[in-house]
Design goal:
mainly alpha
Protein backbone atom coordinates (compact mmCIF):
# COMPACT_ATOMS: atom_id res chain seq x y z
CA UNK A 1 0.00 0.00 0.00
CA UNK A 2 2.92 2.35 0.69
CA UNK A 3 4.08 1.99 -2.92
CA UNK A 4 0.71 3.18 -4.21
CA UNK A 5 0.47 6.16 -1.87
CA UNK A 6 4.10 7.18 -2.48
CA UNK A 7 3.71 6.97 -6.27
CA UNK A 8 0.10 8.13 -6.61
CA UNK A 9 1.17 11.13 -8.69
CA UNK A 10 3.21 9.06 -11.16
CA UNK A 11 0.68 7.23 -13.31
CA UNK A 12 3.39 5.81 -15.54
CA UNK A 13 5.16 4.17 -12.61
CA UNK A 14 1.89 2.73 -11.28
CA UNK A 15 1.02 1.38 -14.73
CA UNK A 16 4.44 -0.27 -15.12
CA UNK A 17 4.16 -1.86 -11.67
CA UNK A 18 0.66 -3.16 -12.43
CA UNK A 19 1.78 -4.52 -15.79
CA UNK A 20 4.78 -6.25 -14.19
CA UNK A 21 2.53 -7.90 -11.62
CA UNK A 22 -0.31 -8.95 -13.93
CA UNK A 23 1.33 -9.76 -17.25
CA UNK A 24 3.60 -12.79 -17.40
CA UNK A 25 7.07 -12.29 -18.79
CA UNK A 26 7.49 -13.60 -22.30
CA UNK A 27 10.14 -16.25 -21.88
CA UNK A 28 10.72 -17.68 -25.29
CA UNK A 29 13.40 -19.82 -26.73
CA UNK A 30 14.48 -20.99 -30.12
CA UNK A 31 14.59 -24.78 -29.85
CA UNK A 32 15.95 -25.20 -33.37
CA UNK A 33 19.12 -23.30 -32.38
CA UNK A 34 21.81 -25.11 -30.44
CA UNK A 35 24.51 -22.52 -31.04
CA UNK A 36 23.81 -19.13 -29.43
CA UNK A 37 26.21 -17.36 -31.79
CA UNK A 38 24.33 -18.68 -34.82
CA UNK A 39 21.05 -17.44 -33.33
CA UNK A 40 22.51 -13.97 -32.62
CA UNK A 41 23.96 -13.76 -36.14
CA UNK A 42 20.67 -14.83 -37.75
CA UNK A 43 18.72 -12.26 -35.72
CA UNK A 44 21.26 -9.57 -36.63
CA UNK A 45 21.08 -10.41 -40.34
CA UNK A 46 17.27 -10.48 -40.21
CA UNK A 47 17.05 -7.00 -38.63
CA UNK A 48 19.74 -5.65 -40.98
CA UNK A 49 17.80 -6.86 -44.05
CA UNK A 50 14.61 -5.40 -42.57
CA UNK A 51 16.25 -1.98 -42.12
CA UNK A 52 17.62 -2.04 -45.69
CA UNK A 53 14.14 -2.86 -47.01
CA UNK A 54 12.56 -0.04 -45.00
CA UNK A 55 15.18 2.46 -46.25
CA UNK A 56 14.63 1.34 -49.85
CA UNK A 57 10.85 1.69 -49.43
CA UNK A 58 11.29 5.20 -47.99
CA UNK A 59 13.63 6.20 -50.82
CA UNK A 60 11.17 4.83 -53.38
CA UNK A 61 8.32 6.80 -51.78
CA UNK A 62 10.35 10.03 -51.89
CA UNK A 63 11.46 9.38 -55.49
CA UNK A 64 7.86 8.71 -56.47
CA UNK A 65 6.63 11.89 -54.80
CA UNK A 66 9.42 14.27 -55.83
CA UNK A 67 11.40 12.53 -58.53
CA UNK A 68 14.61 12.61 -56.47
CA UNK A 69 16.06 11.65 -53.13
CA UNK A 70 17.69 14.33 -50.96
CA UNK A 71 20.96 13.24 -49.38
CA UNK A 72 22.38 15.37 -46.60
CA UNK A 73 25.98 16.47 -46.81
CA UNK A 74 28.36 14.51 -44.64
CA UNK A 75 29.43 16.30 -41.47
CA UNK A 76 32.91 17.65 -42.07
CA UNK A 77 33.62 19.10 -38.64
CA UNK A 78 33.29 22.74 -39.72
CA UNK A 79 29.51 22.93 -39.40
CA UNK A 80 28.13 24.43 -36.21
CA UNK A 81 24.71 25.29 -34.84
CA UNK A 82 25.03 29.06 -34.58
CA UNK A 83 21.44 29.61 -33.41
CA UNK A 84 21.81 27.16 -30.55
CA UNK A 85 20.94 28.49 -27.10
CA UNK A 86 23.08 26.69 -24.50
CA UNK A 87 21.29 24.82 -21.74
CA UNK A 88 21.64 26.06 -18.19
CA UNK A 89 22.74 23.74 -15.40
CA UNK A 90 19.22 24.05 -13.96
CA UNK A 91 17.66 22.90 -17.26
CA UNK A 92 20.04 19.95 -17.48
CA UNK A 93 19.28 19.02 -13.86
CA UNK A 94 15.53 19.02 -14.61
CA UNK A 95 16.11 16.83 -17.67
CA UNK A 96 18.14 14.36 -15.62
CA UNK A 97 15.50 14.21 -12.88
CA UNK A 98 12.69 13.64 -15.44
CA UNK A 99 14.63 11.01 -17.41
CA UNK A 100 14.19 7.29 -17.02
CA UNK A 101 16.31 5.85 -14.22
CA UNK A 102 17.11 2.67 -16.15
CA UNK A 103 20.70 1.69 -16.81
CA UNK A 104 22.21 -0.09 -19.77
CA UNK A 105 25.08 -2.54 -19.31
CA UNK A 106 27.10 -0.29 -21.64
CA UNK A 107 26.80 2.64 -19.20
CA UNK A 108 30.05 3.42 -17.39
CA UNK A 109 28.08 4.47 -14.26
CA UNK A 110 24.78 3.16 -12.87
CA UNK A 111 21.99 5.71 -13.29
CA UNK A 112 21.33 5.72 -9.55
CA UNK A 113 24.92 6.88 -8.95
CA UNK A 114 24.64 9.69 -11.52
CA UNK A 115 21.34 10.88 -10.00
CA UNK A 116 22.68 10.73 -6.45
CA UNK A 117 25.77 12.75 -7.48
CA UNK A 118 24.02 15.10 -9.91
CA UNK A 119 25.16 18.25 -8.07
CA UNK A 120 28.81 17.27 -8.42
CA UNK A 121 28.50 16.03 -12.02
CA UNK A 122 26.19 18.76 -13.29
CA UNK A 123 28.86 21.25 -14.48
CA UNK A 124 30.61 18.53 -16.52
CA UNK A 125 27.37 17.08 -17.93
CA UNK A 126 26.14 20.56 -18.88
CA UNK A 127 29.44 21.43 -20.60
CA UNK A 128 29.49 18.12 -22.52
CA UNK A 129 25.86 18.46 -23.70
CA UNK A 130 26.27 22.09 -24.76
CA UNK A 131 29.53 21.33 -26.58
CA UNK A 132 27.95 18.43 -28.44
CA UNK A 133 24.89 20.43 -29.45
CA UNK A 134 26.85 23.57 -30.33
CA UNK A 135 29.31 21.65 -32.51
CA UNK A 136 26.53 19.60 -34.08
CA UNK A 137 28.49 16.46 -33.27
CA UNK A 138 27.25 13.42 -31.37
CA UNK A 139 30.25 11.22 -30.46
CA UNK A 140 30.23 7.68 -31.84
CA UNK A 141 30.70 6.20 -28.37
CA UNK A 142 27.29 7.64 -27.35
CA UNK A 143 25.62 5.84 -30.23
CA UNK A 144 26.29 2.36 -28.87
CA UNK A 145 23.23 0.25 -28.10
CA UNK A 146 22.34 -3.28 -27.11
CA UNK A 147 19.58 -4.78 -29.23
CA UNK A 148 17.19 -7.12 -27.46
CA UNK A 149 14.87 -9.16 -29.73
CA UNK A 150 11.30 -9.26 -28.37
CA UNK A 151 8.16 -10.97 -29.60
CA UNK A 152 5.80 -8.50 -31.29
CA UNK A 153 2.78 -10.10 -29.60
CA UNK A 154 2.59 -12.52 -26.67
CA UNK A 155 1.84 -16.08 -27.67
CA UNK A 156 3.39 -15.87 -31.13
CA UNK A 157 5.83 -18.48 -32.31
CA UNK A 158 9.44 -17.54 -31.60
CA UNK A 159 10.47 -17.03 -35.21
CA UNK A 160 12.43 -14.17 -36.76
CA UNK A 161 9.47 -12.45 -38.51
CA UNK A 162 7.65 -12.31 -35.14
CA UNK A 163 10.47 -10.38 -33.45
CA UNK A 164 10.98 -6.66 -33.04
CA UNK A 165 14.24 -5.06 -31.96
CA UNK A 166 14.33 -3.13 -28.69
CA UNK A 167 17.42 -0.94 -28.38
CA UNK A 168 18.98 -0.13 -25.02
CA UNK A 169 21.03 3.00 -25.65
CA UNK A 170 24.00 3.92 -23.56
CA UNK A 171 22.69 6.86 -21.56
CA UNK A 172 25.74 8.26 -19.82
CA UNK A 173 29.26 9.22 -20.71
CA UNK A 174 32.41 8.39 -18.77
CA UNK A 175 33.53 11.75 -17.40
Amino acid sequence: MDFMSENGGDQGRLFRATRALLLPKDDFCFPEYVDGAALANDIGRFFHRKIITICADLDAAVIGAQGWVHHDAVFDGDQKLYDFTPLSAEEVSKLIQRSSKRSCTLDPMPTSLVVSMVDELLPSITRILNSSLCLGHFPEVWKAALVDPRLKKAGQAASLPNLRPVSWLMSKVAF
